[in-house]
Amino acid sequence: NASHLALSPDGNHLYTAAAGDNGVGIFSRTAATGALTFVGIRVDGASQGALVLDGLAGAAAVAVSPDGAHLYVAGEADHGVAAFSRATASGQLTFLEAEKDGVAGVDGLAGASALALSPDGRHLYVAAAGDGAVAVFARDAAAASPEFGRLAFVAALFDGTAQGALVVDGLA
């Protein structure tokens, strides 16, 4: 039930958003032939060490940061976005955090359905069909920072009429 794909900047890994699985699929890619090999999946509610994966229910979109260090997943049913650090050699994902609509001041994520990262990797934009909004997050892009790859909510931009009146379901 994969609905969206993202290729790592080096072309060695492919990630799939799978709403039916409530997760993200991980594949390695052979550059010469383009052949894919299944590596694993990260599923909402699964344990990863001491953490429980969250923000992946209804996974609708995936985006790899321009530096290849992180992957972000829009969880349409979770009304949120999950952040993972990415091992560039293996493509494996380690859960960092989930940002959710209505939690800690975050807004504009109801029905999160599309993602776009700024070319400099400093901002993540999330289209949310349920809210008719685009949520803006600052991304810690400093590799030396202990918060590297984590998100900080900046603002939600709603359509000009009423919250949720129009459907926003894509970004470019």
Description:
By secondary structure, the protein is an all-beta fold. About 0% of the residues lie in helices and about 50% in strands. It has no helices and 14 strands. Strands 1-2-3-4 form a 4-stranded antiparallel beta sheet, with no helix packed on it. Strands 7-8-9-10 form a 4-stranded antiparallel beta sheet, with no helix packed on it. Strands 11-12-13-14 form a 4-stranded antiparallel beta sheet, with no helix packed on it. The two termini are about 25 Å apart.
Individual helix count: 0
Structural class: mainly beta
Give the helix proportion (percent range): under 10%
The dominant shape is globular
Beta strand count = 14
How does the major sheet shape up?
4 strands, antiparallel
Give helix and strand order, one letter per element, not per position: EEEEEEEEEEEEEE
